Amino acid sequence: MPPTPPDVIRVPPVQRVFHAQPAPPASKSITNRALPLAALARGASTLRNVLFADDTRYMIGALQQLGFSLALDEAEKTIRVAGTGGEIPARTGELFCGNSGTTIRFLAAILAASPGDYRLDGDERMRRRPIGELVEAIASLGGQARCLERAGYPPLAVGAAGWAGGTCRFTQTLSSQYISAILLAAPLARRPVRVALAGPVTSEPYVRMTLTMMEQFGVRCRMRAENAAPPAARPEAPADAEAPAEAAIRDCVIHVPVDQPYQPRDYRIEPDASNAGYFLAAAALIPGASVTIRGLGRNSMQGDVLFADVLYQMGAAMFMDTAMVRITGRDRLRGLTINMNAIPDMVQTLCVLALFADSPTRITGVGNLRIKETDRLAALQTELTKLGARVITTADGITVFPPREIRPARIATYDDHRMAMAFAVAGLRVPGVEIENPGCTAKTYPEFFTDFLAMTAAAR
Question: Residue 358 and residue 373: Cα distance in Å, rounded?
Fold first, then answer.
């Protein structure tokens, strides 16, 4: 049994430069897509470099409860999944999803597209995270889903006769997970499904990830633009230049076939780009320090790899090729004005770095942070203020004015893994930064503080 984490951990400041090649664990987002894709495939799949953390354990446990056969080898980080060709073995079930948004949302859509009768619930925090938009999308496709206690929120019941198919529309959706959930489940419908995206898509790289993984498992969707050019493929760029941008997914219709069943794969999961961002930020904060992450680069499916470009814009040196990214700290950090709609999970880290910048940092396009594990904009305002910053929040953004002197503080984490990991970065430059409830990182990275403190041990 792993040791019980402390209630508070103090991050020791570094005294000199460090050069490190940390190995963050596998991507939660990819793992929690690969698991249901493999379960729905026609045959056995082997998933390699699997993440075993709270969020993925909820997905694993739910699939097992639904009757899927999963052979786990945590030491080797592999899972062998016996796919059932789109059939859910258990026709009834009550699934507890904790605070795992991908688990409850992906399975709600998949089970609603399948004959049966299911109930999905989560912990107290999950019951405050909206799901009404997904319920409406399921209904528009002929499926049945209803919230059992409070309109628009879990717990919910899904199932009955499955989806008829047809068209559902998303307009300025609160979460890309709703779109991904519909896409993942759509091949189970009786008729083809069309997913119409009107306007910008929040966290759109995650929708791209879903489409890519569906194709890797045998289902190729078609995208037709409406009133806009179709999204372009990721272009090549010089390895030492800015990370390439992609055309936005918006004003288009995604056509999902029902005659292309998911196929089994031997599938290796990338390192988690979101968790890699904390190590890259640490290098950006310390002049002369460098961090190299292997297995991530321009070929990554994860949008959060583009946080390296944000660090570059702040003044860090960046090198990126197809499967590696390196950040090296320079003499100073610049404040930014930036829309982070595509990679909102990295906003907390950017706000912490903004404490050390030479001018204010203004972040827009991230209103969905108010419905994450906590209201992240409100939490950031409270905790950054403790460190001496002046902070202004709006409905969809935050501005951080760096203080003349950063104060030591004990940081509340709100049971939010990203608050704990992001504010740990500040402790590398500021003596006396303490992180409450460090064990909350178990949601996606149980060993985070062990790895983070080991990376800088020789520089203290």
Answer: 30
442 three-state secondary structure:
helix
311 and 339 assigned to the same domain: yes
- Residue 286 lies in domain: 8-25+272-459
Reduced to 3 states (helix: H, G, I; strand: E, B; else coil), residue 44 is: strand
Where are the extended beta strands (E) located within 301-408?
A: 317-321, 324-328, 337-339, 361-364, 390-393, 398-401
Give the Cα separation of 17 and 304 in Å (integer).
Answer: 25
Half-sphere exposure of 238 (CA within 13 A, CB side): 4
Long-range pairs for 232-241: beta carbons < 8 A, 24 or more residues apart: 234/298, 236/298, 237/298, 239/319, 239/320, 239/321, 240/318, 240/319, 240/320
pLDDT digits (tens, 9 = 90+) for 187-198: 999 999 999 998
Predicted confidence (pLDDT) per residue in 284-307, tens digit: 999 999 999 999 999 999 999 999
Confidence of residue 2 (pLDDT cuts 50, 70, 90): low
**Does residue 266 lie in a domain region?**
no
Annotated active-site residue in 309, 345, 416, 451: 345
N-terminal to C-terminal alpha carbon distance within the chain? 30
Total number of domains constituting the chain: 2
78 Cβ contact list (under 8 Å, min separation 6):
46, 47, 48, 50, 72
> Is residue 387 a contact partner of residue 351, using CB atoms and an 8 Å limit?
no
Asked if pLDDT for residue 106 goes beyond 80, the answer is yes
Compute φ and ψ for 106, nearest 5 degrees.
-65, -45
Q: From CA 338, how far away is CA 331, in angstroms rounded?
A: 21
Tokens representing 47? 């998933």
Quick one: how far is CA 391 from the chain centroid? 25
- 263 in any annotated domain: no
Residues listed for the chain? 460
Domain membership flag for residue 296 = yes
Residue 227 has pLDDT above 90, yes or no: no
User: What pLDDT score was predicted for residue 4?
Assistant: 64
Is there a single domain that holds both residue 212 and residue 281? no
**Pair of tokens at residue 154:** 């879990």
What's 271's DSSP letter? B
| Residue 2 falls inside a structural domain | no
> Is 123 a known active-site residue?
no
pLDDT digits (tens, 9 = 90+) for 59-102: 999 999 999 999 999 999 999 999 999 999 999 999 999 999 99
**Using 50, 70 and 90 to split pLDDT, how confident is the model at 161?**
confident
51: domain CATH number is 3.65.10.10
203 Rama class: left (phi>0) / alpha (psi -120 to 50) / beta: left
208 and 300 both lie in a single domain: no
